[in-house]
Design a protein that fits this description.
By secondary structure, the protein is mainly alpha-helical. It is 37% helix and 3% strand. It has helices spanning 2-10, 71-74, 82-98, 108-116, 123-126, 132-141, 153-164, and strands spanning 32-34, 40-42. It has a two-stranded antiparallel ribbon. A hairpin with a 5-residue loop joins strand 1 and strand 2.
Amino acid sequence: DMLHGLHAAHELRDETGQLIGLVHRDVSPQNVLVGSDGITRITDFGVARAASRLTATRVGQLKGKLAYMAPEQAAGIEDLDRRADVFACGIVLWEALAQKRLFKAENEAATLSRVLNEPIPSLLQVAPHLPQGIGRVVMRALEREPDRRFATCAEFADALEAAAYPAGCLAAPR
């Protein structure tokens, strides 16, 4: 549901039918809510940015949580696309399945270094009980090079579902 909600946001169009290029830029567990109906919702688009937006972030100012940023976002690249949110969703899923933090360190500088430079631990090494297909899907979302990640959150969701189904890891919202 988190991935489908973000995909819907990424697909928002202006009055002429052109994609507005919305990127959430702050996907983290705090912004993923599960309702009593079992449906997951993505919230807090407070730092979201559309390509058509006229105002800019102050130079050198990062918006979002360092431990959930894509490398290109953490490096201060302004022209982010939806693949930055794919990476952040990969972090959220990695942490939920591994039951530990991925990049969070003792201070912001060390966290930033982990996001940008340190090898990303294989989910299957940290949580060997998981089906291999699910581990591969999550690790693809965490590719540091955006062109190697899923192109969209919908593509990520489809791959995750395809890996989870044969492993018996799908659940209805109830």
